[in-house]
Amino acid sequence: MGWNDETVPHENPTGTPVLGDRVPVLIVYGELDTQANSPSSLPAVIRFSVPALYEAIKGPKKLMFCFAGSGHSMVWERSAEALQHMSKQWLQHAKVEGLTSGSYFRDPDGVLTPLP
After folding, report:
1. E strand spans, 1-116
2. 79, burial (CB in 10 Å: exposed 0-12, middle 13-18, buried 19+)
3. Beta partners for 29?
4. I need a labelling partner for 52 at 20 to 30 A (CA). Which of 20, 58, 65, 90 fits?
């Protein structure tokens, strides 16, 4: 069923988390995405939360960006160019805008603010 609170914390035989350590993780989602962020009123078995997924990744090499005003189809929305730029940086350098870890809100002007 993909990444969730049960599959994300897998460790390699030495006890080191795989995701966020050996495999760096970049997560990008839209602020208005209700498919990737279902209501908390749904039963846990069908509920999904991108921030909860980020928190479940135990390794230190993880980045998450929430794009203001974007939905589930970011590649076809106004945020597409910024999404492509961030993806290219991540794939080439395992960093975005010089960042290698943390969670950030990206406003419409491209300003990044750390999320709590």
Report:
1. 25-30, 62-67, 102-106, 112-114
2. buried
3. 66
4. 90
Residues 6+ apart with CB under 8 A from 110: 82
Q: 62: which 2 tokens?
A: 């993880």
Report pTM.
0.86
pLDDT tens for 10-27 read: 667 777 777 888 889 999
Span 51-71, pLDDT tens digits: 988 998 888 999 999 999 999
Return d(Cα 83, Cα 26) in angstroms, integer: 11
Other Cβ atoms closer than 10 A to 83:
19
Which backbone phi and psi does 81 adopt, to 5 degrees? -65, -45
DSSP 8-state symbol, 88: H
**Structure tokens, 17:** 């988390």
Rounded Cα gap, residues 24 and 45, in angstroms: 26
DSSP state of 71: -
